[in-house]
Amino acid sequence: MAVTIRDVAQAAGVHISTVSRAFSGSHLVKAETRERVLAAAAELGYRPNQTARALTTGRTQNIGLIVADIANPFFPPLIKSAQSRARLCSYQVFVADTDEDPRAEEELLRTLARQVDGLVLVSPRLANEEIAALGGEVPLVLVNRRVPGLCAVLMDVAHGAALAVEHLAGLGHRRLLLAGGPRNSWTSAEMRRAAEAAAAGRGLEMTLFAPNSPTEQGGIAAARAVVEARATAVIAYNDLVAVGLIEGLDALGVAVPEEVSVVGIDDTVVGRLNRPRLTTVAMPTAAAGRAAVDLLIQAVEAKDADQATAETTLGTSLVVRDSTAPAPRPEPAADAPPAA
C-alpha cells in the first residue's frame, strides 16, 4: 500500500501537521524535528503530492542553484547534497553555471527568478549592491558571501586560513605567499584578512598575489611570483590553484615540499589524487548545500524579517598530507666558517 503522511508522522513520533510543516520548510518546526521527519520519510519512501501542494500554495516547487564554475570539483558535492535535500522537501533544482562571469550571473539570476520560488547563489562574483537589488525580487540565499539583508551560509575559511598559517609557522616557515582568488570573492577577502593577521601575530612575512584566476592556470601563473618573493610556503585560494602551483613550480625546477610547501583550500578529490597529496583546508560543501536549501525554503515560508535574513556559519579544519614539510635550511654564506 502507498505510504501516507500518517505513516510518516507515526514513524517520526509527531503530529500530521508537523510533517506537513517540515516538508514546507516552515520556521515553526525545530531543525532536529525536521531532520527526524525527513529521515522517516526517506526510510518509508514517502513523497508528498506535489501537484496538490502547488495548487494550494501557488508555488512552482522549483528552486534555482547558481554556481561560479561547475567544472571546479568544489561545487559538485554541494550541488548533489542540495538536490537531495530539495527532493526530500518535494522541490526540484535547476542548476546553472556562470563561468566566473558577473554579467552571466546577473542574467541567470533575472531569468531564473521568473521560474522558481527562490534561488541559491554560490560564490557569487557580482558586487554586493547588485546582489542586494536582485534579492529584492526573489527569495535568495547566498553561499560564501555576506550581504546585509540576505540569508547566507558561510564556510569559516578565515579559521581555516589561520590554521594553515599556524601549521606552516610550526614547520619553521617565515616567508609566505598567499595566492588569492578573483575580484569580488568573499572567500579570497576572508582568507587574506585572516592569513595576514595570523602571519603578523607570528612575525612572518607575507606576500599577496591577487587577484588571480581560481583555476589550475591561475596556480601556474602564481609559481613565478613564489620564486621571486623567495617564499618557502604558499596558501592557495583553492585546490585547483594549489595543484597548478605545484605544476608551475616543478616546471621552474622547484620541488614541493622539499623547497616550497603548498596548502590548498577545499579538500576536493583533485587534491587527494595529486602527488604530492595536498595539505588543504576542508570545506563543508555538502553540509552547505543542505543548509542553503533549508534556509531558502524557510525564507520562502517566512512570516518575519528575522527568518528571511538568517545566517549559518559552518566550521572548517586543516587536513595535513604530503605537500607541506619543514622549511628548508638557508644555505650558508660562502665565507661562513664550517659547522663544528
TrEMBL record:
<dbReference type="Pfam" id="PF13377">
    <property type="entry name" value="Peripla_BP_3"/>
</dbReference>
<dbReference type="InterPro" id="IPR000843">
    <property type="entry name" value="HTH_LacI"/>
</dbReference>
<feature type="domain" description="HTH lacI-type">
    <location>
        <begin position="3"/>
        <end position="57"/>
    </location>
</feature>
<dbReference type="Pfam" id="PF00356">
    <property type="entry name" value="LacI"/>
</dbReference>
<feature type="region of interest" description="Disordered">
    <location>
        <begin position="311"/>
        <end position="340"/>
    </location>
</feature>
<dbReference type="InterPro" id="IPR046335">
    <property type="entry name" value="LacI/GalR-like_sensor"/>
</dbReference>
<dbReference type="GO" id="GO:0000976">
    <property type="term" value="F:transcription cis-regulatory region binding"/>
</dbReference>
<dbReference type="GO" id="GO:0003700">
    <property type="term" value="F:DNA-binding transcription factor activity"/>
</dbReference>
<keyword id="KW-0805">Transcription regulation</keyword>
<keyword id="KW-0804">Transcription</keyword>
<keyword id="KW-0238">DNA-binding</keyword>
<protein>
    <submittedName>
        <fullName>LacI family transcriptional regulator</fullName>
    </submittedName>
</protein>
<dbReference type="InterPro" id="IPR028082">
    <property type="entry name" value="Peripla_BP_I"/>
</dbReference>
<dbReference type="InterPro" id="IPR010982">
    <property type="entry name" value="Lambda_DNA-bd_dom_sf"/>
</dbReference>
